Amino acid sequence: MSRSSHGAHSPNVTMRDVAKAAGVSIATVSHVINDKAGARIGDDARRRVQDAVIALGYRPNALAKTLSQGTSRFIGLVADQIATTPFAGQIIHGAQDEAWRHGYVLLVANSDGNAAAEDEAIAMMLEHQVHGILYSSWYHREIDVPEQLHQADTVLVNCFAPGSGLRSVVPDEEQGGRTATDELIAAGHRRIAFVNTTTPSPAKVGRLAGYRAALAAAGIDTGESLVVEASPEQEGGYAVAQRIVDSGATAVFCHNDRVAMGLYDGLRERELRIPEDVAVIGFDNQEVIAAHLRPPLTSVALPHYELGVAGVRILLGLDPADEASPTLISCPIVARRSV
């Protein structure tokens, strides 16, 4: 018979192995092993976990035992492609800084959009009894919540899931759209176009709502000819340049900085100067674009760092959050020379 059959300690056996053998969740295994008070576990499930522990020779290591006693100082962050995007990695930076500030260490797993890798990352974090999990996407969107996230205290960052019961923190897209439009109004413009995206998203809806709200508050008519849709990249902005000229707009609010970059090219080809002939504002404040256009582009920033901070604060109970609606984080304007 093998050593594990006698219950000898096998250093390679994990809580996940026990859960698989017993046909239960990792959380259930943790509750049984640590005899967690108040855990509602049936006698059959408890017996299967105990049998699997003996059969596999599982024994919690010192770290797991310490974590099980409620002294975990780890916060998990699971993301899709956040670590490989040029600006969204700031969510990790903000979460890490805030976690350190309160004596916690951030454990980061980047799934690169791979569902199996994501499941494995969440399972690992549950096994190590993290204090809670931040689940983040690299762009603001509605998501389907991975089932395992319901086994931990979870906050969604830069994404949301209505009806899931999970708290979330997202950019205030409408406020950002209003801020951009207000900047152009303050500069004296009254005929302001908005180049929106063709891609359905909270950003498309929210930024348009903010644009319309700012114009309405200023008593400016929002003619539909001034709202133009374009694909959300440089080519999209370039393609609508003639429509912007034909509209008679003296200022343009662009859905993002890439669209603004293309619009710059289209306006320049038509011998129009920025901002003397047409003022332009972007969105995202993608530094590699906005700061290096000529003239540098005024842009509304997505608050990625602040989203990470807010996610940790909500997870630690330092700030309140409503499960019924996302917590909104303001999008500040970064003024340059395009207005």
From TrEMBL:
<feature type="domain" description="HTH lacI-type">
    <location>
        <begin position="13"/>
        <end position="69"/>
    </location>
</feature>
<keyword id="KW-0804">Transcription</keyword>
<dbReference type="InterPro" id="IPR010982">
    <property type="entry name" value="Lambda_DNA-bd_dom_sf"/>
</dbReference>
<dbReference type="InterPro" id="IPR046335">
    <property type="entry name" value="LacI/GalR-like_sensor"/>
</dbReference>
<protein>
    <submittedName>
        <fullName>LacI family DNA-binding transcriptional regulator</fullName>
    </submittedName>
</protein>
<dbReference type="Pfam" id="PF13377">
    <property type="entry name" value="Peripla_BP_3"/>
</dbReference>
<dbReference type="InterPro" id="IPR000843">
    <property type="entry name" value="HTH_LacI"/>
</dbReference>
<keyword id="KW-0678">Repressor</keyword>
<keyword id="KW-0805">Transcription regulation</keyword>
<dbReference type="InterPro" id="IPR028082">
    <property type="entry name" value="Peripla_BP_I"/>
</dbReference>
<dbReference type="Pfam" id="PF00356">
    <property type="entry name" value="LacI"/>
</dbReference>
<dbReference type="GO" id="GO:0003677">
    <property type="term" value="F:DNA binding"/>
</dbReference>
<keyword id="KW-0238">DNA-binding</keyword>
